[in-house]
Design brief:
The longest helix is centred in the middle third of the chain and has 16 residues. This protein has a single domain, classed as GIY-YIG endonuclease, CATH 3.40.1440.40. It is globular, with a radius of gyration of 18 Å. Strand 7 and strand 8 form a beta hairpin. About 35% of the residues lie in helices and about 25% in strands. By secondary structure, it is α+β, with helices and mostly antiparallel strands. The protein is built from six helices and eight strands. Helix 3 crosses helix 4.
């Protein structure tokens, strides 16, 4: 299954710098620069445990941390391999807290068809390469006044991020029928 990948430079560093100085090519952003550009913060990671998948969120996002009670997020699940390559697998949003949404995903990994399919993808990554990690990055969504009411822009920002990343290869854009064809639905 293909997933959206942040661009990387494909020429040698010396050639790349020379071309960039001549302004013939733009500097492609590294995954870290892209994440920083859109103000995504490292929030934690998805862990494989004996009882299933779980989320290990940073203290700022859990308990009584700085962002624990902050509503309105766009978040990314990013597959990180041993070489540091970042592949965005999933873009999500929540009008509630990030911890609350992660708890919903954890429950879905066991109880919903779509959640089970995502869990199967994640477990496959862990099985194929023990060094793979699934990181969670999150961005506080902006707010706008619409019809006199202040609303979170998380849904619009989620759609924009999906569009920016190419759209159709992300897990959240795969329909149930396609998941079934890929053989990812069903029991653990």
């Amino acid at each position: 299954m293909s997933i959206a990948t942040f661009p990387r430079a494909s020429v040698r560093e010396g050639q790349f710098i020379a071309l960039q100085q001549e302004k013939k090519i733009a500097v492609p952003a590294t995954p870290e620069e892209e994440i920083k550009k859109y103000k995504f913060l490292y929030a934690g990671k998805i862990l494989k445990e004996p009882k299933g998948l779980s989320f290990d969120l940073q203290e700022n996002f859990a308990g009584k941390g700085k962002f624990a009670n902050t509503p309105g997020w766009v978040y990314l699940w990013i597959k990180v391999n041993k070489n540091g390559r970042f592949d965005v697998c999933y873009v999500g949003m929540t009008t509630k807290t990030l911890k609350g949404r992660c708890d919903q995903h954890k429950n879905g990994f066991r109880n919903s068809m779509r959640g089970k399919a995502f869990a199967k993808f994640i477990r496959r990554f862990f099985k194929e390469d023990a060094t793979v990690e699934i990181h969670v990055y999150a961005h506080i969504s902006g707010k706008r006044k619409i019809l006199g009411e202040e609303v979170s822009m998380c849904e619009a920002e989620e759609r924009a991020m999906i569009k920016k990343l190419g759209g159709t290869d992300l897990w959240n854009k795969i329909g149930y029928k396609r998941l079934k064809l890929l053989g990812t639905t069903g029991s653990h």
